[in-house]
Design goal:
It holds the Pfam family Fer4_5. InterPro entries: 4Fe4S_Fe-S-bd, 4Fe4S_Fe_S_CS, Electron_Trans/Redox. Keywords: 4Fe-4S, Electron transport, Iron, Iron-sulfur, Membrane, Metal-binding, Transmembrane, Transmembrane helix, Transport. The protein is mainly alpha-helical. The chain has a domain at 377-457: Alpha-Beta Plaits. 59% of the residues lie in helices and 3% in strands. It is built from 19 helices and three strands. Strands 1-2-3 form a three-stranded antiparallel beta sheet. Helix 2 (44-71) packs parallel to helix 6. It is globular and about 60 Å long.
């Protein structure tokens, strides 16, 4: 506790919230309250008005608060008081946020199925408030997944705006943030909706197997070829297979897994924007790393085996498999696709950090990580002579890597889990860490890693 030399009275460790900040946060709160009232309003017209009023208040308050908090201060990574605030130190506010997020996912996944009757349970009014927008974009009424996609995209855009203010001094962070905002809005929200409007399959061109696991399942391939049309359907199947087995290895060789996990993927996009206030909560212990390795590669093996079994069963070579593979795919979809990636992956942001799913469960991250560690030119080089052991780099790493230990020894960071977000480099006050693409020869030889033809990306 710090003391004032003149008054000898203790000063609070966390600065008082200004009147302007309180006003902006109140606007955010009113927006959330307006959205909450929609769920209990039986009048469709009034509910729709409350919905868009809530979205407007929430957007204005969030962007205004982001500008007031970060835009008026000197540029730089501001990590002050994170462990002193209840919202970012697993305090009461963090637990409340986790409960609300988890509860929303549970209701969305398992209590909002309309069964073809147009009633979506607890979220019914919220979902139908989007009917005009859904009809305009997709030419069909809204459903629980359209509500989810709208909220998801809104979160990425609003918190992406916050990230642009917060990290405006770093060209790399600005481009990376703009990239995930673009891919979420364009490829994961608008384009799938337009495909439905033209009576084509709802397809996400920015998601690939094994993350979008069913895209290479026999049933999905048949559906795409049938309903997608002779040209588009074939292209969808070709695109998914080519990106999984050709595009991914090539791009990872040149850029590491960051080309996807930090620039394209919607899961990573939400983590890097909405999850940014919680990045310091990732466990850096050796025990956490052991669990990470055990779980994430198990999930990868499971989806590879399941995909192979589904194709084997569909071929008719082993007729008995057809009765087994369908329950297995449903079990995987429930346990991994819903509980792990959704409920835990997002609901636990305020408690375990923003990359829980990416770090412990995502099979795409495991696949990319193996390519990055053993075949990629990407690495983070360090200069131990300049490291002052401040720990900023480790604090901002949401993948649980104790970056400081590498920096102190001047060792390159070539880890399967690293998503190349570059936050460690951005947060370093001495320029010790640099993201580079270079020849694989000599990649484990410390200072000899810097070659003349390396691409050096400064933060």
């Amino acid at each position: 506790m710090a003391f004032d030399a003149n008054l000898t009275l203790p000063r609070p460790p966390v600065p008082d919230t200004t009147a302007t900040e309180k006003t902006l946060l109140t606007v955010v709160g009113l927006g959330l309250l307006a959205l909450l009232t929609v769920a209990f309003d039986a009048d469709a017209g009034r509910a729709r008005l409350s919905f868009w009023a809530g979205v407007l208040l929430l957007s204005a308050g969030t962007l205004g608060w982001a500008w007031y908090t970060f835009g008026r201060q000197p540029a730089g990574v501001l990590q002050d008081n994170l462990w002193l605030r209840a919202s970012s130190s697993r305090g009461a506010v963090a637990w409340l946020t986790a409960v609300v997020l988890t509860g929303f996912y549970v209701v969305l996944y398992w209590f909002s199925n309309d069964n073809g009757q147009g009633n979506f349970g607890p979220l019914n009014q919220l979902i139908h408030a989007l009917d005009p927008f859904s009809q305009w974009l997709r030419h069909k009424p809204s459903d629980q997944w359209f509500l989810y996609g709208t909220f998801y995209t809104l979160a990425v855009l609003l918190m992406g705006g916050r990230a642009l203010w917060k990290y405006r001094h770093s060209p790399y962070q600005r481009i990376r943030t703009a990239s995930v905002m673009f891919f979420q809005l364009g490829f994961a929200f608008l384009l799938p909706g337009l495909l439905l409007a033209f009576q084509r399959p709802e397809y996400y061109f920015s998601y690939f197997w094994p993350l979008k696991y069913d895209y290479l399942f026999p049933g999905t391939v048949s559906y795409l070829l049938k309903d997608g049309g002779p040209a588009l359907g074939v292209f969808m199947v070709f695109w998914g297979a080519a990106m999984s087995f050709v595009g991914t290895p090539i791009l990872t060789y040149f850029f590491g897994k960051r080309w996807y996990c930090s620039w394209v993927c919607g899961c990573g996009g939400l983590a890097e924007t909405a999850g940014d206030p919680y990045r310091h909560l990732s466990d850096k212990s050796r025990a956490a790393w052991r669990w990470e390795v055990r779980i994430i590669y198990t999930v990868l093996v499971l989806i590879v085996a399941l995909t192979a079994l589904l194709w084997l069963g569909a071929s008719g070579a082993v007729p008995a498999l057809q009765a087994v593979t369908e329950p297995l795919s449903k079990a995987y979809g429930f346990a991994i696709g819903s509980v792990f990636s959704g409920v835990i992956g997002v609901g636990f942001y305020p408690l375990m950090g923003a990359r829980v799913w990416c770090r412990f469960g995502c099979p795409m991250a495991a696949y990319l990580g193996l390519l990055q560690k053993h075949f990629s030119r990407f690495r983070i080089t360090t200069n131990g002579a300049q490291c002052i052991s401040c720990g900023n780099c480790s604090n901002v790493c949401e993948m649980g890597i104790d970056v400081k230990q590498y920096a102190q020894r001047g060792e390159p960071i070539i880890r399967a889990s690293c998503v190349g977000c570059g936050m460690c480099s951005t947060a370093c006050p001495r320029g010790v860490l640099n993201l580079e693409n270079g020849p694989t020869e000599g990649r484990y030889q410390g200072s000899q890693l810097i070659h003349a033809d390396s691409l050096r990306i400064l933060s």
